[in-house]
Design goal:
This protein has one domain. It is globular and about 40 Å long. It is 12% helix and 28% strand. The protein has a seven-stranded antiparallel β-sheet. The protein contains two helices and seven strands; from the N terminus they run ββαββββαβ. It is an alpha+beta fold.
């Protein structure tokens, strides 16, 4: 899948090219009244969204691409996983983006899957 470069910033992490941008989300679609950071690989197989300003206890990324850590089954229905904070101040820097990409591409499946509100999903699929 080709990814448009218009209005996106390039970054290289681990020898792989990515594009990133900050966008305002429609609160009716995202449930968020804030900005989000979107990151996509140049090949299009990695695509995540991180909502800025999330409370620590429900902070998560939304995975829309097929590749995320070592988690199988990504790329269909959007999945969400708890994540560390990346923003340090009022703005997002390239080092913040690189840190998020490095975390999201670790070859580990040691993450907690959550629902759209950031509440952990139990093993049987219930929140």
């Amino acid at each position: 899948m080709a990814v448009s470069r218009k209005n996106k910033r390039p970054i290289r992490v681990g020898g792989q090219g990515y594009l990133w941008w900050v966008t305002s989300d429609d609160p009716l679609l995202s449930g968020s009244l804030c900005l989000s950071l979107a990151v996509v690989s140049e090949s299009g197989d990695f695509f995540i969204k991180y909502f800025l300003g999330q409370p620590e206890d429900v902070r998560h990324v939304e995975v829309m691409g097929r590749r995320f850590r070592s988690i199988a089954g990504c790329g269909g229905v959007h999945r969400r996983f708890l994540c560390p904070a990346i923003e340090n101040e009022a703005c997002i820097t390239p080092s913040d983006v690189a840190a998020l990409i490095a975390w999201a591409t670790l070859p580990s499946n040691d993450v907690v899957e959550v629902n759209y509100m950031g509440t952990p999903i139990a093993a049987n699929g219930e929140a």
